[in-house]
Amino acid sequence: MGQTQQTESCEEIDVKALQDMYKKFVTECPSGVLFLHEFKRFFGVDPTGEAAEYAENMFRAFDKNGDNTIDFLEFVAALNLVFRGDLEHKLRWSFKVYDKDGNGYIDRTELKSIIDSISRIRKCSKPNSNDSQLTIDEVVDRILKAMDTDGDGIISMEEFIKGAQQDPWVLNMLTLDMNPAAWVQEHRRKSAHF
User: Fold this and answer.
1) Structural domain of residue 20, as residue ranges?
2) Of 124, 98, 128, whose CA–CA distance to 111 is shortest?
3) 140: domain CATH number?
4) pTM of model > 0.85
5) Using CA of residue 10, residue 59, residue 111, residue 179, what is the dihedral sign?
């Protein structure tokens, strides 16, 4: 568990970064809201690439009011969680990303879809890496065995949080950092050069 705490970002969004994000947000989204295709472009995600499905799930989690857009306040609230949230808050947010149908549970199909997306993205970002010799189905089976404590075939938010906190392998398999901290820093550097 100590390893996870060390990897959590201690960075905070300062006023300058917030101003820079707002300028970028207004430039990219003059309407004041971010649609899915703009969200993908905002983070440099190829609309048909490996990260597209994961980005769509993230978009849904950012869209707190369910209107299929992200306003600036929703955007900043989500980034604030990513920058400053503790592990439990991040796991709660991740659960919402993975629970595609929003029914409060992650079933085998949803879990397989997200593990497949994470696996494909990791292979693209580290093509020579052999993180796991397990198949997607084997990973899903192992995660279900570790998390589904009541054996009903679905994972509740409580099971998800407890399972991820207790098993470092499960936590690693469920983690994919789109790295907004690096994105903010890179855009700050770029804007400083203009």
Assistant:
1) 9-192
2) 98
3) 1.10.238.10
4) no
5) negative
